[in-house]
Design goal:
Blueprint (H helix, E strand, L loop, with lengths): L1 H28 L2 E2 L11 E2 L3 H17 L12 H22 L3 H17 L6 E2 L5 E2 L2 H22 L5 H24 L6 H20 L8 H22 L10 H14 L1 H16 L12 H7 L4 H24 L2 H20 L3 H12 L2
Antiparallel strand pairs: 1-2, 3-4
Protein backbone atom coordinates (compact mmCIF):
# COMPACT_ATOMS: atom_id res chain seq x y z
CA UNK A 1 0.00 0.00 0.00
CA UNK A 2 2.80 2.45 0.87
CA UNK A 3 4.38 1.97 -2.55
CA UNK A 4 1.10 2.79 -4.28
CA UNK A 5 0.65 5.92 -2.17
CA UNK A 6 4.20 7.02 -2.95
CA UNK A 7 3.59 6.63 -6.69
CA UNK A 8 0.26 8.46 -6.36
CA UNK A 9 1.92 11.38 -4.59
CA UNK A 10 4.71 11.52 -7.15
CA UNK A 11 2.22 11.63 -10.02
CA UNK A 12 0.22 14.33 -8.24
CA UNK A 13 3.29 16.45 -7.47
CA UNK A 14 4.72 16.32 -10.99
CA UNK A 15 1.34 17.05 -12.56
CA UNK A 16 0.80 19.98 -10.19
CA UNK A 17 4.27 21.45 -10.80
CA UNK A 18 4.25 21.07 -14.60
CA UNK A 19 0.71 22.34 -15.19
CA UNK A 20 1.72 26.06 -14.99
CA UNK A 21 4.57 25.37 -17.43
CA UNK A 22 2.22 23.65 -19.86
CA UNK A 23 -0.22 26.55 -19.46
CA UNK A 24 2.45 29.01 -20.60
CA UNK A 25 3.36 26.75 -23.52
CA UNK A 26 -0.27 26.33 -24.56
CA UNK A 27 -0.86 30.10 -24.48
CA UNK A 28 2.30 30.83 -26.46
CA UNK A 29 1.68 28.17 -29.09
CA UNK A 30 -2.02 28.91 -29.55
CA UNK A 31 -3.62 25.90 -27.85
CA UNK A 32 -6.63 27.97 -26.82
CA UNK A 33 -10.25 26.99 -26.20
CA UNK A 34 -12.24 29.81 -27.74
CA UNK A 35 -15.72 30.62 -26.45
CA UNK A 36 -18.52 28.84 -28.36
CA UNK A 37 -22.28 28.87 -27.95
CA UNK A 38 -22.31 25.49 -26.18
CA UNK A 39 -19.46 26.36 -23.80
CA UNK A 40 -19.83 27.49 -20.20
CA UNK A 41 -16.54 29.41 -19.91
CA UNK A 42 -16.72 33.07 -20.96
CA UNK A 43 -13.16 33.82 -22.04
CA UNK A 44 -10.49 32.01 -24.11
CA UNK A 45 -8.65 29.49 -21.94
CA UNK A 46 -5.48 27.52 -22.71
CA UNK A 47 -5.86 23.77 -23.04
CA UNK A 48 -3.33 20.93 -23.38
CA UNK A 49 -3.38 20.25 -19.63
CA UNK A 50 -3.32 16.56 -20.45
CA UNK A 51 0.37 16.98 -21.24
CA UNK A 52 1.08 17.74 -17.57
CA UNK A 53 -0.93 14.66 -16.63
CA UNK A 54 1.24 12.63 -19.00
CA UNK A 55 4.34 13.81 -17.16
CA UNK A 56 2.72 12.71 -13.90
CA UNK A 57 1.91 9.29 -15.34
CA UNK A 58 5.43 8.71 -16.66
CA UNK A 59 6.99 9.83 -13.38
CA UNK A 60 4.76 7.51 -11.37
CA UNK A 61 5.54 4.53 -13.61
CA UNK A 62 9.26 5.27 -13.55
CA UNK A 63 9.23 5.47 -9.75
CA UNK A 64 7.24 2.24 -9.50
CA UNK A 65 9.80 0.44 -11.68
CA UNK A 66 12.50 1.34 -9.14
CA UNK A 67 10.60 0.24 -6.02
CA UNK A 68 11.47 -3.31 -4.87
CA UNK A 69 7.85 -4.23 -4.05
CA UNK A 70 6.58 -2.97 -7.43
CA UNK A 71 9.15 -4.46 -9.79
CA UNK A 72 6.97 -7.50 -10.49
CA UNK A 73 4.62 -5.20 -12.41
CA UNK A 74 7.34 -4.70 -15.01
CA UNK A 75 8.96 -8.15 -15.09
CA UNK A 76 7.75 -11.05 -17.21
CA UNK A 77 5.15 -9.01 -19.08
CA UNK A 78 4.92 -6.42 -21.82
CA UNK A 79 1.73 -4.88 -20.45
CA UNK A 80 3.44 -1.63 -19.47
CA UNK A 81 4.75 -1.15 -23.02
CA UNK A 82 1.33 -2.01 -24.44
CA UNK A 83 -0.17 0.64 -22.19
CA UNK A 84 2.43 3.28 -23.05
CA UNK A 85 2.09 2.66 -26.80
CA UNK A 86 -1.65 3.28 -26.56
CA UNK A 87 -1.03 6.38 -24.45
CA UNK A 88 1.50 7.70 -26.99
CA UNK A 89 -0.97 7.42 -29.85
CA UNK A 90 -3.88 8.95 -27.92
CA UNK A 91 -1.76 11.85 -26.62
CA UNK A 92 -0.43 12.62 -30.12
CA UNK A 93 -4.01 12.53 -31.42
CA UNK A 94 -5.15 14.81 -28.61
CA UNK A 95 -2.39 17.35 -29.19
CA UNK A 96 -3.27 17.65 -32.87
CA UNK A 97 -6.97 17.95 -32.02
CA UNK A 98 -6.36 20.57 -29.33
CA UNK A 99 -4.39 22.68 -31.79
CA UNK A 100 -6.24 22.34 -35.09
CA UNK A 101 -9.40 20.36 -34.37
CA UNK A 102 -10.10 17.02 -36.04
CA UNK A 103 -13.21 15.62 -37.65
CA UNK A 104 -15.03 12.94 -35.67
CA UNK A 105 -14.12 10.09 -38.11
CA UNK A 106 -10.41 10.97 -37.90
CA UNK A 107 -10.51 11.06 -34.09
CA UNK A 108 -12.36 7.75 -34.03
CA UNK A 109 -9.75 6.15 -36.30
CA UNK A 110 -6.98 7.35 -33.98
CA UNK A 111 -8.79 5.99 -30.95
CA UNK A 112 -9.21 2.62 -32.68
CA UNK A 113 -5.48 2.58 -33.46
CA UNK A 114 -4.55 3.28 -29.83
CA UNK A 115 -6.97 0.65 -28.50
CA UNK A 116 -5.91 -1.89 -31.13
CA UNK A 117 -2.22 -1.45 -30.30
CA UNK A 118 -2.90 -2.21 -26.64
CA UNK A 119 -5.13 -5.18 -27.43
CA UNK A 120 -2.66 -6.76 -29.84
CA UNK A 121 0.09 -6.49 -27.23
CA UNK A 122 -1.86 -8.19 -24.46
CA UNK A 123 -4.15 -5.66 -22.77
CA UNK A 124 -7.33 -7.38 -23.88
CA UNK A 125 -10.50 -8.95 -22.54
CA UNK A 126 -9.88 -12.70 -22.73
CA UNK A 127 -13.03 -14.11 -21.11
CA UNK A 128 -16.61 -13.24 -20.31
CA UNK A 129 -18.91 -14.68 -17.60
CA UNK A 130 -21.31 -16.24 -20.12
CA UNK A 131 -22.39 -19.84 -19.60
CA UNK A 132 -19.77 -20.22 -16.90
CA UNK A 133 -16.63 -18.91 -18.53
CA UNK A 134 -16.55 -18.02 -22.22
CA UNK A 135 -12.97 -17.74 -23.48
CA UNK A 136 -12.80 -15.35 -26.43
CA UNK A 137 -10.93 -16.15 -29.61
CA UNK A 138 -8.11 -13.69 -30.48
CA UNK A 139 -10.09 -11.67 -33.04
CA UNK A 140 -13.17 -11.34 -30.84
CA UNK A 141 -10.96 -10.44 -27.89
CA UNK A 142 -9.31 -7.59 -29.81
CA UNK A 143 -12.60 -6.27 -31.23
CA UNK A 144 -14.35 -6.37 -27.86
CA UNK A 145 -11.41 -4.66 -26.18
CA UNK A 146 -11.38 -1.89 -28.80
CA UNK A 147 -15.10 -1.35 -28.24
CA UNK A 148 -14.65 -1.02 -24.47
CA UNK A 149 -11.77 1.44 -24.86
CA UNK A 150 -13.71 3.54 -27.38
CA UNK A 151 -16.72 3.77 -25.08
CA UNK A 152 -14.53 4.73 -22.13
CA UNK A 153 -12.58 7.38 -24.06
CA UNK A 154 -15.68 9.04 -25.45
CA UNK A 155 -17.60 8.83 -22.17
CA UNK A 156 -14.90 10.85 -20.39
CA UNK A 157 -14.55 13.16 -23.38
CA UNK A 158 -18.30 13.89 -23.44
CA UNK A 159 -18.51 14.64 -19.72
CA UNK A 160 -15.62 17.14 -19.86
CA UNK A 161 -17.86 20.21 -19.94
CA UNK A 162 -17.40 22.08 -16.64
CA UNK A 163 -14.32 23.24 -14.78
CA UNK A 164 -12.86 20.31 -12.85
CA UNK A 165 -15.64 17.92 -13.85
CA UNK A 166 -13.81 15.23 -15.85
CA UNK A 167 -10.70 15.25 -13.64
CA UNK A 168 -12.77 14.94 -10.46
CA UNK A 169 -15.02 12.20 -11.82
CA UNK A 170 -12.02 10.16 -12.97
CA UNK A 171 -10.30 10.69 -9.60
CA UNK A 172 -13.38 9.36 -7.78
CA UNK A 173 -13.85 6.48 -10.22
CA UNK A 174 -10.18 5.50 -10.15
CA UNK A 175 -10.19 5.69 -6.35
CA UNK A 176 -13.09 3.24 -6.23
CA UNK A 177 -11.37 0.93 -8.68
CA UNK A 178 -8.11 1.11 -6.72
CA UNK A 179 -9.94 0.12 -3.53
CA UNK A 180 -11.63 -2.74 -5.36
CA UNK A 181 -8.52 -4.10 -7.08
CA UNK A 182 -6.41 -3.91 -3.91
CA UNK A 183 -9.04 -5.58 -1.73
CA UNK A 184 -9.57 -8.23 -4.39
CA UNK A 185 -5.86 -9.03 -4.45
CA UNK A 186 -5.91 -9.42 -0.65
CA UNK A 187 -9.01 -11.62 -0.57
CA UNK A 188 -8.13 -13.82 -3.55
CA UNK A 189 -4.39 -13.97 -2.99
CA UNK A 190 -3.64 -12.34 -6.33
CA UNK A 191 -0.29 -10.58 -6.71
CA UNK A 192 -0.83 -7.23 -4.99
CA UNK A 193 1.63 -5.40 -7.22
CA UNK A 194 -0.44 -5.29 -10.39
CA UNK A 195 -0.58 -2.92 -13.34
CA UNK A 196 -4.32 -2.34 -12.90
CA UNK A 197 -3.91 -1.22 -9.28
CA UNK A 198 -0.89 0.93 -10.15
CA UNK A 199 -2.67 2.66 -13.04
CA UNK A 200 -5.67 3.35 -10.80
CA UNK A 201 -3.42 4.94 -8.17
CA UNK A 202 -1.61 7.03 -10.78
CA UNK A 203 -4.92 8.19 -12.24
CA UNK A 204 -5.97 9.48 -8.83
CA UNK A 205 -2.65 11.28 -8.45
CA UNK A 206 -2.72 12.82 -11.94
CA UNK A 207 -6.24 14.15 -11.46
CA UNK A 208 -5.60 15.51 -7.96
CA UNK A 209 -2.47 17.27 -9.21
CA UNK A 210 -4.38 18.86 -12.07
CA UNK A 211 -7.52 19.93 -10.22
CA UNK A 212 -6.04 23.00 -8.43
CA UNK A 213 -5.53 24.63 -11.84
CA UNK A 214 -8.74 23.29 -13.36
CA UNK A 215 -11.46 24.00 -10.82
CA UNK A 216 -13.79 26.98 -11.31
CA UNK A 217 -12.59 29.34 -12.69
CA UNK A 218 -10.17 27.13 -14.57
CA UNK A 219 -6.81 28.55 -15.59
CA UNK A 220 -6.25 25.66 -17.99
CA UNK A 221 -8.32 22.87 -19.56
CA UNK A 222 -7.11 19.29 -19.99
CA UNK A 223 -8.28 19.30 -23.62
CA UNK A 224 -8.79 16.15 -25.63
CA UNK A 225 -5.17 15.33 -24.84
CA UNK A 226 -6.22 14.80 -21.24
CA UNK A 227 -9.78 13.52 -21.50
CA UNK A 228 -8.98 10.84 -24.08
CA UNK A 229 -5.90 9.71 -22.13
CA UNK A 230 -7.89 9.42 -18.90
CA UNK A 231 -10.57 7.36 -20.64
CA UNK A 232 -7.97 5.05 -22.16
CA UNK A 233 -6.15 4.57 -18.84
CA UNK A 234 -9.38 3.85 -16.96
CA UNK A 235 -10.37 1.26 -19.56
CA UNK A 236 -6.92 -0.34 -19.56
CA UNK A 237 -6.99 -0.71 -15.76
CA UNK A 238 -10.32 -2.54 -15.79
CA UNK A 239 -9.33 -4.75 -18.72
CA UNK A 240 -5.98 -5.64 -17.14
CA UNK A 241 -7.59 -6.62 -13.84
CA UNK A 242 -10.18 -8.84 -15.52
CA UNK A 243 -7.30 -10.75 -17.10
CA UNK A 244 -5.77 -11.45 -13.67
CA UNK A 245 -8.81 -13.29 -12.35
CA UNK A 246 -9.55 -16.90 -13.27
CA UNK A 247 -13.18 -17.47 -12.22
CA UNK A 248 -12.74 -21.26 -12.39
CA UNK A 249 -10.24 -21.10 -9.54
CA UNK A 250 -12.48 -19.06 -7.25
CA UNK A 251 -14.90 -20.56 -4.75
CA UNK A 252 -18.58 -19.67 -4.71
CA UNK A 253 -18.11 -17.35 -1.74
CA UNK A 254 -15.80 -15.15 -3.81
CA UNK A 255 -17.57 -15.50 -7.17
CA UNK A 256 -19.06 -12.00 -7.15
CA UNK A 257 -15.74 -10.25 -6.47
CA UNK A 258 -14.13 -12.36 -9.18
CA UNK A 259 -16.74 -11.44 -11.79
CA UNK A 260 -17.04 -7.82 -10.80
CA UNK A 261 -14.09 -6.66 -12.99
CA UNK A 262 -16.43 -7.18 -15.93
CA UNK A 263 -19.28 -5.26 -14.26
CA UNK A 264 -17.47 -2.63 -12.21
CA UNK A 265 -16.50 -0.42 -15.16
CA UNK A 266 -20.21 0.19 -15.75
CA UNK A 267 -20.57 1.33 -12.14
CA UNK A 268 -17.32 3.27 -11.99
CA UNK A 269 -18.24 5.22 -15.12
CA UNK A 270 -22.00 5.24 -14.59
CA UNK A 271 -22.32 9.03 -14.84
CA UNK A 272 -20.14 9.47 -17.96
CA UNK A 273 -21.74 6.43 -19.62
CA UNK A 274 -25.24 7.70 -18.87
CA UNK A 275 -24.33 11.08 -20.32
CA UNK A 276 -22.83 9.42 -23.41
CA UNK A 277 -25.86 7.18 -23.94
CA UNK A 278 -28.34 10.02 -23.55
CA UNK A 279 -26.33 12.21 -25.93
CA UNK A 280 -26.19 9.53 -28.63
CA UNK A 281 -29.92 8.82 -28.27
CA UNK A 282 -30.83 12.51 -28.26
CA UNK A 283 -28.77 13.37 -31.31
CA UNK A 284 -29.63 10.36 -33.44
CA UNK A 285 -33.34 10.84 -32.70
CA UNK A 286 -32.98 14.40 -33.97
CA UNK A 287 -31.29 13.14 -37.14
CA UNK A 288 -27.88 14.50 -36.14
CA UNK A 289 -24.47 12.87 -35.80
CA UNK A 290 -23.87 11.24 -32.38
CA UNK A 291 -20.71 13.36 -32.19
CA UNK A 292 -22.47 16.64 -32.97
CA UNK A 293 -22.02 18.91 -29.91
CA UNK A 294 -24.94 20.37 -27.98
CA UNK A 295 -25.70 21.96 -24.64
CA UNK A 296 -27.95 19.31 -23.12
CA UNK A 297 -25.49 17.18 -21.17
CA UNK A 298 -26.23 16.23 -17.56
CA UNK A 299 -24.09 19.06 -16.21
CA UNK A 300 -25.94 21.55 -18.43
CA UNK A 301 -29.24 20.29 -17.01
CA UNK A 302 -27.97 20.83 -13.46
CA UNK A 303 -27.08 24.40 -14.37
CA UNK A 304 -30.56 24.88 -15.85
CA UNK A 305 -32.05 23.70 -12.54
CA UNK A 306 -30.33 26.61 -10.82
CA UNK A 307 -27.15 25.02 -9.50
CA UNK A 308 -23.91 26.96 -9.65
CA UNK A 309 -20.97 25.51 -11.56
CA UNK A 310 -19.25 24.43 -8.34
CA UNK A 311 -22.41 22.83 -6.95
CA UNK A 312 -23.14 21.04 -10.24
CA UNK A 313 -19.63 19.63 -10.33
CA UNK A 314 -19.82 18.45 -6.72
CA UNK A 315 -23.14 16.75 -7.41
CA UNK A 316 -21.63 14.90 -10.36
CA UNK A 317 -18.73 13.81 -8.15
CA UNK A 318 -21.19 12.59 -5.54
CA UNK A 319 -23.25 10.58 -8.03
CA UNK A 320 -20.09 8.95 -9.40
CA UNK A 321 -18.86 8.08 -5.92
CA UNK A 322 -22.21 6.73 -4.79
CA UNK A 323 -22.58 4.26 -7.66
CA UNK A 324 -18.89 3.27 -7.84
CA UNK A 325 -18.28 2.70 -4.14
CA UNK A 326 -21.66 0.99 -3.73
CA UNK A 327 -20.61 -1.50 -6.40
CA UNK A 328 -17.32 -2.10 -4.60
CA UNK A 329 -19.14 -2.54 -1.28
CA UNK A 330 -21.42 -5.20 -2.77
CA UNK A 331 -18.37 -7.41 -3.30
CA UNK A 332 -16.92 -7.15 0.19
CA UNK A 333 -19.67 -6.36 2.73
CA UNK A 334 -23.09 -7.92 3.37
CA UNK A 335 -25.52 -7.07 0.60
CA UNK A 336 -28.03 -5.50 2.98
CA UNK A 337 -25.51 -2.98 4.27
CA UNK A 338 -24.38 -2.07 0.75
CA UNK A 339 -27.93 -1.61 -0.52
CA UNK A 340 -28.92 0.31 2.60
CA UNK A 341 -26.04 2.73 2.22
CA UNK A 342 -26.82 3.15 -1.47
CA UNK A 343 -30.49 3.86 -0.74
CA UNK A 344 -29.62 6.53 1.83
CA UNK A 345 -27.13 8.16 -0.53
CA UNK A 346 -29.62 8.01 -3.39
CA UNK A 347 -32.24 9.80 -1.32
CA UNK A 348 -29.86 12.52 -0.18
CA UNK A 349 -28.52 13.16 -3.67
CA UNK A 350 -31.99 13.23 -5.21
CA UNK A 351 -32.99 15.85 -2.66
CA UNK A 352 -29.81 17.85 -3.37
CA UNK A 353 -30.42 17.81 -7.13
CA UNK A 354 -34.01 18.94 -6.73
CA UNK A 355 -33.14 21.65 -4.20
CA UNK A 356 -30.72 24.13 -5.75
CA UNK A 357 -29.50 26.85 -3.43
CA UNK A 358 -31.85 29.79 -2.94
CA UNK A 359 -29.04 32.15 -3.88
CA UNK A 360 -28.71 30.66 -7.33
CA UNK A 361 -32.47 30.83 -7.91
CA UNK A 362 -32.64 34.47 -6.83
CA UNK A 363 -29.69 35.32 -9.06
CA UNK A 364 -31.32 33.68 -12.05
CA UNK A 365 -34.57 35.51 -11.39
CA UNK A 366 -32.76 38.85 -11.27
CA UNK A 367 -30.91 38.15 -14.49
CA UNK A 368 -34.14 37.28 -16.30
CA UNK A 369 -35.78 40.54 -15.24
CA UNK A 370 -32.71 42.48 -16.30
CA UNK A 371 -32.02 43.96 -12.83
Amino acid sequence: MREYLLCLLAAAAVTYLTTPVVRVMATRWGFMAEVRDRDVHDEPTPRLGGLAMLFGLLTGMLLASKLPMMKSVFHGTNSQWALLSGVAVIVALGIVDDKWGLDAPVKLAGQVLAAGLMALQGIAVVWLPIGGTLVLDPLTSVLFTVLIVLVSINAINFVDGLDGLAAGIVAVAAGAFFAYSYLLSVNLGIERAGLATLVSALLVGMCLGFLPSNTFRARIFMGDTGSMMLGLLLASATITLSGQVDPNSVGKAMLLPALLPILLPLAVMAVPLADLGLAVFRRTRAGRSPFAPDKQHLHHRLLDLGHSQRRAVMLMYAWTGLVAFAAVAVAFVPLGYALGGFAIGLGLLTWAVRSPGRTQLVARGLSRTGT
